[in-house]
Amino acid sequence: MFSLKEPICYTTDMKDTQIKKLIDTEKKRQKSVINLIASENYVSQDVLDALGSELTNKYAEGYSGARYYGGNEIIDKVEDLCCERALKLFDLNENEWHINTQPLSGSPANLAVYVGLVPQGAKIMGMSLDHGGHLTHGFKVSATGKFWTQVPYGVQKETELLDYEALKNLAIAEKPAIIVAGYTAYPRKVDWKKFREIADASGALLMVDMSHLGGLVAGKVYPSPFPYADIVTTTTHKTLRGPRGALIFVRKDERGLDKKIDKAVFPGLQGGPHMNQTAAIAVALKEASTPAFKKYAGQILKNATALAAELSKRGWRIVSGGTDSHLILVDTWMNGAGISGKEASDRLEAAGIIVNKNTIPFDSRSPVDPSGIRLGTAAETTRGKKEKDFKKIAEKIDQVLNAKKK
Length: 406
Ligand SMILES: *Cc1c(COP(=O)(O)O)cnc(C)c1O
Description:
This protein is α/β, with parallel strands linked by helices. It has helices at residues 17-32, 45-51, 73-89, 106-117, 143-146, 164-174, 192-202, 214-218, 257-269, 275-288, 291-313, 341-350, 378-382, 387-405, and strands at 34-35, 62-63, 66-67, 97-100, 123-127, 149-153, 178-181, 205-209, 231-235, 246-251, 317-318, 327-331, 353-354, 356-358, 372-376. It folds into two domains: 54-288, Aspartate Aminotransferase, domain 2; 291-405, Aspartate Aminotransferase, domain 1 (Alpha-Beta Complex). The strands form four sheets. The chain has a seven-stranded mixed β-sheet, with helices on both faces.
């Protein structure tokens, strides 16, 4: 594959020295920090090469075999190959699943699903932002909360876990058009089967947004939502370790959801697809289908478990008591016994550890200075770190946060 130690490579002969300098400086920054941002990763040189290729020059409005511009013979092959690799990676049958490779990123992918399938004003049942949902799950400042009505749900207060019985009652009472599962800050396993039952009991579509989990599902270290969902969306740049972008998987059947979603992406929301991006996604999907990637995914989980255990041992409260993924939510505030999420994040950045401040469920503080931080192990696992390294990272985090605590 590619060297884990040197995941970032640079253009050496750019004539635009101003931008070159900024790129090189950012490269240096990326190399010099410990990156615990749960949604980031480092892509291979092959992914960068595809992204930086001449495919960016081509207009390809439409879909493979049905374009609005000439000269798309080769571009069609790129898109077809990307679809083929996506099906293979997630063990899907082409008679059962349709794939749209064109959404420019995760948010536009989710928007396209609603534009295609949810009547304006109808209800989207999604986790509220402060419990770990994404903006595009119907939150009020997002277009998805302006054109549709969110039925928010959260985790249970005592356990900080999903309460499927309560979700079922809510769905039956509210009758949403679509239920969205899959989150940005929920560290535990989600029972996709239970979500299927809830969707069936309330007559809703089930969309799983596995943006954070794509690489873990691909590596078979996290349960696959495909047996249960009508629609699966994922970003390609988080645990999947590809370029920024997204994929929409749609179940093919007599409901014709696939046609509706394709129309929503183009011409509904977008013009020409970014074919350099599609090619780079195809590269990442192939990389993700290797035994080395499966090992990588397993290591992400081991590292997260080690990090959570060590922080917990050192007295920090881990939301929900642990993790089943790459992601850990730490309650740094601990009802005033600790420090705020913003202060924690600022202090860690000064010490070379990059994290993000994050609300915790039922947060008593504000989103701009919440009670917690979110940590993820995908990026540093790409750089070859193992459990013992994460134990050391936990030690360092503890030192930095404690400097103020006592
Ligand atoms: C990251 C993420 C998105 C949005 O992706 P962007 O590429 O930032 O638009 C959507 N949903 C979830 C659950 C995510 O984690």
